[in-house]
Design goal:
Largest sheet: 8 strands, mixed
Radius of gyration: 16 Å
CATH superfamily of one domain: Gcn5-related N-acetyltransferase (GNAT)
Strand order of the largest sheet: 1-2-3-4-5-6-10-7
Helix content: 25-40%
Number of helices: 5
CATH topology of one domain: Aminopeptidase
Shape: globular
CATH class of one domain: Alpha Beta
Protein backbone atom coordinates (compact mmCIF):
# COMPACT_ATOMS: atom_id res chain seq x y z
CA UNK A 1 0.00 0.00 0.00
CA UNK A 2 1.23 3.45 -0.91
CA UNK A 3 2.26 5.62 2.06
CA UNK A 4 1.19 9.24 2.02
CA UNK A 5 3.43 12.12 3.00
CA UNK A 6 2.36 14.07 6.09
CA UNK A 7 0.95 17.49 5.13
CA UNK A 8 2.45 20.66 6.60
CA UNK A 9 0.52 22.13 9.53
CA UNK A 10 0.77 25.58 7.97
CA UNK A 11 1.31 26.94 4.46
CA UNK A 12 0.24 29.87 2.29
CA UNK A 13 -1.07 30.80 -1.13
CA UNK A 14 -1.05 34.19 -2.84
CA UNK A 15 -3.66 35.68 -0.51
CA UNK A 16 -4.32 33.08 2.18
CA UNK A 17 -2.54 31.58 5.14
CA UNK A 18 -3.60 28.04 6.17
CA UNK A 19 -2.97 26.73 9.68
CA UNK A 20 -4.00 23.74 11.76
CA UNK A 21 -6.58 24.80 14.39
CA UNK A 22 -5.62 25.00 18.05
CA UNK A 23 -7.71 25.38 21.22
CA UNK A 24 -6.78 29.09 21.30
CA UNK A 25 -8.77 29.49 18.05
CA UNK A 26 -12.07 28.14 19.40
CA UNK A 27 -13.74 31.46 20.20
CA UNK A 28 -12.76 33.00 16.85
CA UNK A 29 -14.01 29.91 14.97
CA UNK A 30 -17.32 30.04 16.84
CA UNK A 31 -17.97 33.76 16.37
CA UNK A 32 -16.67 34.07 12.80
CA UNK A 33 -18.38 31.10 11.12
CA UNK A 34 -19.20 27.91 13.08
CA UNK A 35 -21.91 29.57 15.18
CA UNK A 36 -23.43 31.48 12.26
CA UNK A 37 -26.65 29.87 10.94
CA UNK A 38 -26.25 31.56 7.54
CA UNK A 39 -22.76 30.10 7.08
CA UNK A 40 -23.70 26.60 8.26
CA UNK A 41 -27.10 26.42 6.55
CA UNK A 42 -26.05 23.96 3.83
CA UNK A 43 -23.38 22.12 5.82
CA UNK A 44 -23.74 18.55 7.04
CA UNK A 45 -22.55 19.40 10.56
CA UNK A 46 -24.73 21.29 13.04
CA UNK A 47 -24.28 24.98 13.75
CA UNK A 48 -22.26 25.30 16.94
CA UNK A 49 -24.53 26.47 19.74
CA UNK A 50 -21.76 27.23 22.24
CA UNK A 51 -17.99 27.64 22.26
CA UNK A 52 -17.89 24.19 23.90
CA UNK A 53 -19.10 22.77 20.56
CA UNK A 54 -16.17 24.51 18.90
CA UNK A 55 -13.69 23.14 21.43
CA UNK A 56 -15.05 19.68 20.57
CA UNK A 57 -14.36 20.44 16.89
CA UNK A 58 -10.75 21.39 17.73
CA UNK A 59 -10.34 18.11 19.67
CA UNK A 60 -11.78 16.20 16.70
CA UNK A 61 -9.39 18.11 14.42
CA UNK A 62 -6.42 17.06 16.55
CA UNK A 63 -7.54 13.42 16.32
CA UNK A 64 -7.82 13.70 12.52
CA UNK A 65 -4.31 15.15 12.31
CA UNK A 66 -3.01 12.28 14.47
CA UNK A 67 -4.66 9.49 12.46
CA UNK A 68 -4.29 10.95 8.95
CA UNK A 69 -1.75 12.73 6.76
CA UNK A 70 -3.77 15.97 7.10
CA UNK A 71 -6.90 17.39 8.66
CA UNK A 72 -8.75 20.69 9.02
CA UNK A 73 -7.09 24.04 8.32
CA UNK A 74 -8.15 27.52 9.35
CA UNK A 75 -7.97 30.29 6.75
CA UNK A 76 -6.57 33.78 7.28
CA UNK A 77 -5.54 36.56 4.91
CA UNK A 78 -1.89 37.58 4.89
CA UNK A 79 -2.90 41.10 5.93
CA UNK A 80 -4.57 39.80 9.09
CA UNK A 81 -1.41 37.89 9.98
CA UNK A 82 -3.39 35.06 11.54
CA UNK A 83 -5.53 37.28 13.76
CA UNK A 84 -8.93 37.09 12.03
CA UNK A 85 -10.27 33.71 10.96
CA UNK A 86 -11.89 33.74 7.50
CA UNK A 87 -13.12 30.17 7.66
CA UNK A 88 -11.87 26.62 7.30
CA UNK A 89 -11.14 23.90 4.81
CA UNK A 90 -9.21 20.65 4.97
CA UNK A 91 -9.03 17.01 4.05
CA UNK A 92 -10.97 14.17 5.65
CA UNK A 93 -9.59 10.76 4.71
CA UNK A 94 -12.03 8.05 3.66
CA UNK A 95 -9.17 5.60 3.14
CA UNK A 96 -5.40 6.02 2.66
CA UNK A 97 -5.70 7.32 -0.91
CA UNK A 98 -9.13 8.99 -1.02
CA UNK A 99 -10.09 12.15 0.85
CA UNK A 100 -13.08 14.47 1.04
CA UNK A 101 -12.71 18.22 0.92
CA UNK A 102 -14.99 21.04 1.97
CA UNK A 103 -14.94 24.63 3.12
CA UNK A 104 -16.86 27.16 5.19
CA UNK A 105 -16.28 30.89 5.11
CA UNK A 106 -17.47 33.74 7.31
CA UNK A 107 -20.16 35.84 5.59
CA UNK A 108 -17.88 38.84 5.09
CA UNK A 109 -15.49 36.60 3.12
CA UNK A 110 -18.14 35.50 0.59
CA UNK A 111 -17.79 36.55 -3.03
CA UNK A 112 -14.09 37.40 -2.82
CA UNK A 113 -12.67 34.26 -4.42
CA UNK A 114 -11.39 32.82 -1.14
CA UNK A 115 -13.39 29.58 -1.50
CA UNK A 116 -11.87 28.91 -4.93
CA UNK A 117 -8.37 29.75 -3.71
CA UNK A 118 -8.77 27.53 -0.64
CA UNK A 119 -10.15 24.63 -2.68
CA UNK A 120 -7.37 24.91 -5.27
CA UNK A 121 -4.85 24.88 -2.42
CA UNK A 122 -6.42 21.70 -1.03
CA UNK A 123 -6.21 20.08 -4.48
CA UNK A 124 -2.51 20.97 -4.67
CA UNK A 125 -1.88 19.79 -1.12
CA UNK A 126 -3.69 16.48 -1.73
CA UNK A 127 -1.75 15.90 -4.93
CA UNK A 128 1.51 16.73 -3.15
CA UNK A 129 0.99 14.24 -0.33
CA UNK A 130 -0.07 11.40 -2.64
CA UNK A 131 -3.88 11.38 -2.53
CA UNK A 132 -5.33 9.71 -5.64
CA UNK A 133 -8.90 11.04 -5.49
CA UNK A 134 -10.73 13.94 -3.88
CA UNK A 135 -14.47 13.86 -3.27
CA UNK A 136 -16.88 16.63 -2.32
CA UNK A 137 -20.61 16.97 -1.85
CA UNK A 138 -22.92 19.95 -1.80
CA UNK A 139 -26.61 20.45 -1.22
CA UNK A 140 -28.42 20.34 -4.56
CA UNK A 141 -29.69 23.90 -4.06
CA UNK A 142 -26.34 25.39 -3.08
CA UNK A 143 -25.39 26.62 -6.53
CA UNK A 144 -22.57 28.90 -5.35
CA UNK A 145 -20.72 25.94 -3.87
CA UNK A 146 -21.36 23.79 -6.96
CA UNK A 147 -19.87 26.57 -9.14
CA UNK A 148 -16.74 26.75 -6.96
CA UNK A 149 -16.24 22.99 -7.21
CA UNK A 150 -16.66 22.99 -10.99
CA UNK A 151 -14.42 26.05 -11.41
CA UNK A 152 -11.68 24.20 -9.51
CA UNK A 153 -11.87 21.18 -11.82
CA UNK A 154 -14.16 18.83 -9.91
CA UNK A 155 -16.45 16.70 -12.04
CA UNK A 156 -20.14 16.57 -11.15
CA UNK A 157 -21.11 12.91 -10.89
CA UNK A 158 -24.80 13.50 -10.30
CA UNK A 159 -27.14 13.26 -7.36
CA UNK A 160 -26.16 10.85 -4.57
CA UNK A 161 -28.19 7.65 -4.35
CA UNK A 162 -29.00 8.33 -0.70
CA UNK A 163 -29.98 11.72 0.71
CA UNK A 164 -27.77 13.42 3.30
CA UNK A 165 -28.99 14.92 6.57
CA UNK A 166 -28.68 18.68 6.75
CA UNK A 167 -29.16 19.50 10.45
CA UNK A 168 -29.35 23.27 9.94
CA UNK A 169 -32.29 23.33 7.55
CA UNK A 170 -35.80 23.56 8.95
CA UNK A 171 -36.68 20.17 10.39
CA UNK A 172 -33.12 18.83 9.96
CA UNK A 173 -34.14 17.46 6.58
CA UNK A 174 -32.61 14.74 4.49
CA UNK A 175 -31.96 16.26 1.08
CA UNK A 176 -30.39 15.47 -2.25
CA UNK A 177 -26.71 16.16 -2.61
CA UNK A 178 -24.54 16.55 -5.64
CA UNK A 179 -21.44 14.35 -5.75
CA UNK A 180 -18.21 15.77 -7.14
CA UNK A 181 -14.84 14.11 -7.59
CA UNK A 182 -11.40 14.73 -8.96
CA UNK A 183 -8.76 12.15 -9.86
CA UNK A 184 -5.28 13.39 -9.01
Amino acid sequence: MKMLTKAPEAFQTDRLHFRRPSPADAQAIFYRYAGDPAVTRYLSWPTHRTVADTYAFVEWSDAEWERSPAGPYLLFTHEDRGKRVLGSTGLLFQNPLVASVGYALAQDAWGMGYASEALQAMVGLARGIGVCQLNAICHAEHQASARVLQKCGFIAEGVAAHPTRFPNLDGAVFASVLNFSMRL
